[in-house]
Write a structure and sequence with these properties.
The chain is an alpha+beta fold and 245 residues long. The protein has 4 helices and 14 strands. Bound molecules: 2-acetamido-2-deoxy-beta-D-glucopyranose. It comes from Prunus mume (Japanese apricot).
């Protein structure tokens, strides 16, 4: 009798905790003419999502859900294959796991990132497309069905085409496959907004960050690039994350 009651109680608690959490839906779509291998990373010491890496062929879609609260990022790896040792490696944004799954690892820059902060209790979501760690694939985050601002965060242009020589990352065929941020390339405080340049006033845009912001005005081009306002949306929309929008 007691056991049954406990089972029923814990079962309903489980249902309640799932039902109460309005998880966010992330719908991935690959509009690139090439295959990408998206990756997910949950920030902090929280559990990772149901998948940390998957393959997305041209025109393919994939849907996943986040719990709430959730804080993390998504990106796309390109030029991936199995090497002669059976290790999965990518030409850009590799996560060094040796597998399609990233298992909590982050991306090796340069990488275009979609970043999310989804608070508990149905509060306002924060999201952006960031070029702070450089650029590899055009990307957009388009909330559908939310309330409030809900603008599309994006870097739809191919920044590789306007990438200055000193920031270029080239592939095996000599083509530019990604573009480093000046912070990643030169590791200088004025580009990384680290001390003594760690305030918005002492870390203005640079000639390098301007190349990124000119190409993609709706993405973060450097650490203190807050002027466009942060992207927010309420009501747990469906976030459509498109590669090559
Ligand atoms: C950016 O400025 C630095 C000096 O601050 C200069 O060396 C570099 O050539 C400039 N690069 C571009 C792409 O304008």
């Amino acid at each position: 009798m007691m056991t049954t009651l406990l089972v029923v109680l814990s079962l309903s608690l489980t249902i309640l905790s799932f039902g109460g959490a309005h998880a966010a839906t992330m719908s991935f779509k690959n509009n690139c003419p090439y295959t990408v291998w998206p990756a997910t990373q949950t920030s902090g010491k929280k559990p990772q999502l149901s998948t940390t890496g998957f393959k997305l062929a041209p025109h393919a879609r994939f849907k996943l859900h986040t719990p709430e609260p959730w804080n993390g990022r998504f990106w796309a790896r390109t030029g991936c294959s199995m090497d002669s040792y059976g290790k999965f490696v990518c030409a850009t944004a590799d996560c060094a796991s040796g597998q399609v799954k990233c298992n909590g690892n982050g991306a090796i820059p340069p990488v275009t990132l979609a970043e999310f902060n989804i608070p508990a209790g149905g509060g306002k979501d924060f999201y952006d497309v960031s070029l702070v760690d450089g650029f590899n694939v055009p990307m957009s985050v388009n909330p559908q069905g939310g309330t409030g601002d809900c603008k599309t965060a994006s870097c739809p242009k191919n920044v590789n085409k306007v990438c200055p020589r000193e920031l270029q990352k080239k592939g095996a065929n000599g083509k530019v496959v990604a573009c480093l941020s000046a912070c990643v390339a030169f590791k200088k405080p004025k580009y990384c907004c680290t001390p003594p340049h760690n305030t918005p006033e002492t870390c203005p845009p640079t000639n390098y960050s301007k190349i990124f912001s000119r190409a993609c005005p709706n993405a973060y081009s450097y650490a203190y690039d807050d002027k466009k306002g942060t992207f927010t949306c309420k009501g747990r929309p469906n976030y459509v994350i498109t590669f090559c929008p």
